Amino acid sequence: MEALVPLHVRQARRRKGFILLATGFFILVQIVWIGLPILMAVLWSFVSAKHSWSYPDLFPKVLGLDPWRYVFKYTNIKRALVTSYSIAPFAVALSFLLSLPTSYVLGRKNFPGKKFFNIVVLLPIIMPGMVVALSLSRVFQAVRLSQTFVGLVVAHTLMGLPYMIRVLSTSFQTIPQDVIDAAENLGASTFVKIRDIYLPMVLPGLLAGMIFAFTTSIEEFNLTFVIGTPTFETIPTILYSFMGYNFIRTNASVVALVMMVPNIVLLFLVERFLKADYLSASLGKM
Amino acid sequence: MRRAVLIVLVCLTAAGLAFGTGQKGDTGSTLDFQKAKWDQIVAQAKKEGQVVFYAWYFADFFTEAAAAFEQKYGIKATVVMGDNNANTNKAVAEKDLPVGTIDCMIMGGQNVKTGMDLGLFYGPIKGIIPDADKLAPSLWVVQEGVQVKGYLAPFHRNQTGLVYDPDRVKEPLPQTFAELTAWIEAHPKEFGFCDPSKGGSGQSFVHTVIKELCGGLDKYSGDTEVVQSKVANWNLAWEWVQKHKDQLTITASNNDTYGRVNGGELTLAVAWDDGIKDLINKGNMFPRAKMYIPKMGFAGGGDTMGVLKNSSRKAAALLWIAHITSKEMQERKFTMVNAYPARTDITIPNVMLTEKDRANAIAWFPAPYKAFMIAEFTKNVLMK
Q1: Chain B (244-283) residues lying within 8 Å, Cβ to Cβ, of chain A
Q2: What is the pTM of this model?
Q3: Pick the CATH number of B34-158+302-337 from 3.40.50.2300, 3.40.309.10, 3.40.190.10, 3.20.20.10
Q4: For residues B91 and B146, what is the distance between their CA atoms, to the nearest angstrom?
Q5: Among B350, B274, B348, B297, which residue's Cα sits nearest to residue B106?
Q6: Among A276, B12, B110, B373, which is most buried by a count of CB atoms within 10 Å?
């Protein structure tokens, strides 16, 4: 019977089967890799203080709001939330502005030592976070940026810059030169080229860089703790107090969820605006 | 172009060197705390008006203690909950500044040597704090093998021992090293201790193994550095661990041990009594968990609090320490978090380890040997 089915139909069926299998496998991996840990965090955050979740129980026997009450009563989590989400947008904006010229040069120009500079821009994320924090705190103390909001924004920008530069330089690299040449031939000024060609085409890369820089800022602990506390507390400084030497899983789960949920919502919002239209169009793909 | 770049680099380097010198700041009171009366210190503390305290556990107790402190003295107490290592790193980062941001902090056993070696603390304060003689006397002198010379005030005592699930570990419990070895061999992978470089409970276990297999602890007493002839036979301890490596579970931290006990993977493990009790109180450990100190002995100690040398509010910090170590606060600490007080004039029920249990507690050998032990364990056990 199989032999009666045309070859192209059999091939199409196999392709469809393969796609279904791959999709199913991907969904399963996502459930195990991401879904299960989130489910565990949610369950742990509702474990009652009076009824532990222990062996041999597969699920907590009694749920309660004790961990949530504890975290909101005995930590400055509300203030930390406001601080975290105040610093991050400024850090992202500053990362973008500072990275733009560097990523343009790294993406579109060739010069001696280019490979070396590509590595140098990654230094803030290669070096251990506490080493960066201890060194930077000395400088910030001297220029009176320690314990200040501006100081924290600058510190967070430092950690977001590597991601922004690398992503944007890749985006700049992919812009076809003939589009630039065509614009110049038609008399476009530098400002018009930046506004109508460069920026729209690097937009997907910019958004990706923004996501990296934003999440880096939200998750930054070492710099915030050394330079910012006691004046400023962020979500990670509270989270680490429950995850470090004194690990309280229930409380840590609460703080992790408080940190995670707004980030997930933001990611979905940004995803709606991620468009590859301009770049695809310029390459004749649309 | 090259000259311009060179000039910019030279200027940046010079600026960096200049910035490294730090900035001036108000260094605080000129009162000589070693000679002042306590009333003078309290008055000065009220003038200072604020104290910043760094801790990493008992957020609930310290938050309430801060509220009580503010109500009693009118001094704002800011409690920052960080992490043991992060707090110490921050204090170290600020140590050369004329004025730091930390006035007072908890010093745990893991970092007390660092703190004392770097001279982070003002002191001695033993002669200043009221009722100092009622706080764990040994901790004023030595904390986990480190001479603290009265610079750090005991506020909390803790002890390592063996935590077990009484539903799965039946009497008689192993008391001697031979009995424990037999138990481990009979229950492969059910006994656990943490990597000594990551937690004090693991250090305590290895410390006991060395005591049992390498000729006791008395020979190290008073040494200020490692005497090679005294550690020449420590290979016996590493060989024992290697021989039983497939039957032992070496965990990543104190907390990893506790998590595995709670999860049922381990039924007998080395733990800190205060850690276990705190987890039980917060629903992170089954309430039936019990602890004991076997006759072979396990080490313990406690945590202390110190005033940072570059604090500009030393009087307020001293008053804060006096507040935390007061009878009222020590009893409240026990009520809230079931943690053993540092005060010896308080009778308390319902602890993981009673005073009778603590009769089997042993003292740590000197700190240089502890550091050497951790390095040798890593080299001879973990890396093999």
Answers
A1: 253-255, 258-259, 262-265, 275, 278-283
A2: 0.85
A3: 3.40.190.10
A4: 19
A5: B274
A6: B373
CATH number of the A76-282 domain: 1.10.3720.10
Return the residue matching tokens 């100690």: B301
Cα→Cα distances B194→A18, A62, B133, B270, Å:
46, 30, 34, 8
Q: Is the pLDDT of residue B24 over 50?
A: no
Nearest residue, CB atoms, B97 vs list A74, A133, A141 = A141
A vs B, Cβ pairs < 8 A, gives 141
On whether ipTM exceeds 0.95, the answer is no
Nearest chain A Cα distance for residue B255, angstroms: 6
CA distances to A259, B173, B188, B370 from B182, rounded to whole Å, are 47, 11, 10, 27
CB-neighbour burial class of residue A119 (10 A; exposed 0-12, middle 13-18, buried 19+):
exposed
For residue B159, the SS3 value is: strand
Domain ranges of chain B: 34-158+302-337, 159-300+354-382
d(CA B321, CA A215): 39
Q: What is the pLDDT of residues B310-366, one digit of tens each?
A: 999 999 999 999 999 999 999 999 988 888 899 988 877 777 887 778 889 998 999
Q: Does the B159-300+354-382 domain belong in CATH 3.30.190.20? A: no
* B positions 57-86 inside 8 Å of A (CB): 57, 59-60, 63, 78, 80-86
DSSP, collapsed to helix, strand or coil, labels residue A113 as coil
Structural contact between residues B275 and B199, judged by C-beta atoms closer than 8 angstroms: no
- What would the pLDDT profile of B253-309 be if each residue is shown by its tens digit? 999 999 999 999 999 999 999 999 989 989 999 999 999 999 999 998 899 999 999
Residue B195 amino acid letter: D
